[in-house]
Amino acid sequence: MARKFPEGFLWGGATAANQLEGGYLEGGKGLTSVDLIPHGEQRFQVALGELHYSEVKEGSFFPSHEAIDFYTHYKEDIALFAEMGLKSYRFSMAWSRIFPTGFETEPNEEGLQFYENVIDELLKYGIEPVVTINHFDVPKTLIDEYGSWRDRRMVDLFVNYASALFNRFKGKVKYWISFNEINMLLHLPFMGAGIYLGDLKEEERNQVLYSAAHHELLASAKITKVLHEIDPDAKMGSMLAAGEYYPYSANPQDVWEANLDNRDNFFFIDVQAGGEYPEWAKIKFEEEGIDIGITEEDKEILRDNTVDYITFSYYASRVSKADLSDVEVDSGNAFQGAKNPYLEVSEWGWAIDPLGLRTTMNGLWDRYRKPLFIVENGLGAKDTVEADGSINDDYRINYLKAHINAFMDAVEQDGIPLIGYTPWGIIDLVSASTGEMSKRYGLIYVDRQDDGSGDLSRSKKKSFDWYKEVIETNGQAARN
């Protein structure tokens, strides 16, 4: 007999500071890594850590600087979230808004007050705050002085930052997430972790990246310990850019390649949820001469401070093939692989695979046995504003409906505990991958264009009222 979908499920929406806040130097905020990534042809090179931010063309446009100006529109936006019926709102805090350079010993009060205002506004409407502590935000000063997360000294600075948040928001924030899509460090090093690689050789790159990974994993464990000490009722989650790798064929080589790709993708969460490095990783480090500088104390901290729940983003499944030379390659996002011939793709080439979400959930639950929380899922698409101002985004409704049905099946038929669902971006914001506004995800339209023009006015899309009904019926409207 299928389980009933749970009452109290956290239907919500998700955003990130660097993609919607704007006010990039307001209120004492310092520059952050994403403030240095331009729109246009050089964006991907900088995000990969191959082009230094100082070499970006003069006159380039930086979309994060104003974004959609949530910094001054937050009350209006949260009122719209409440009208939609959101039970939760996942957002991030910018490290450099709290510690402008990262080196300060005391937090910036203006920054703390801004986020407290946001949290209080959410609580006023009964919306549960779900806070990401680090969503692709590293203070520029720490990049310049330390080379970002390649330096172990970043750990204590991050603990100082997180501790300031826990002390200030104790009792107000129950759900925390340490690092957004922590595995993105290996795919887009500067975007994910502020790491510039330049022209390092592959073995040197791996040394830098896996050292940085260890420092982030250690920082995550340390702040989990601090959170449990400061606010025992609060919970810390990890976050994975998820998506199951399918073998391209029944060829054992393709099956094994998919196994390797999935294993690599689970690497960070294996440590955060399991408390130790997997054996294959230890062998890899030894064979490749990678020294992550792990100590016995580090091992103890990782073992004793695992996360309470697993959060993840899901946009698409992926396909593994041992030899990619004779097939079309999927270049839709940061994860390279073979193109799946059975799936349709979005305007930006991302595979659309609702059943893959259920498959991914089963894989995560079987592996970790910790409650799950889908904190990103959505469709980037171009929207047309009709003459009467309406936006008929049935394509987005169809996408969300199919994925909601998939995770409801996973809960009701597979018995997987799921805390909530916060589709990405509940309101239009800057695309992290392309820097575009035209790649819209929101259920709320924002008059803001790729070149920065627009009056920033907000309006509801057709999907707004549809999702409102889904929430009101605890998902049943998506079943119809």
Automatic annotation (TrEMBL):
Catalytic activity, EC: 3.2.1.86
One GO term (biological process): carbohydrate catabolic process
A GO molecular-function annotation: 6-phospho-beta-glucosidase activity
Alphabetically ordered keywords of this record: Glycosidase, Hydrolase
Pfam families attached to this UniProt entry: Glyco_hydro_1
Active site annotation, chain numbering: 376 (nucleophile)
Hydrolase listed as a keyword: yes
PROSITE patterns named among the record's database cross-references: GLYCOSYL_HYDROL_F1_1, GLYCOSYL_HYDROL_F1_2
Keyword Hydrolase in annotation: yes
The organism's place on the tree of life at top rank: Bacteria
Listed GO CC annotations: cytosol
Family the UniProt entry places it in: Belongs to the glycosyl hydrolase 1 family.
UniProt name for this protein: 6-phospho-beta-glucosidase
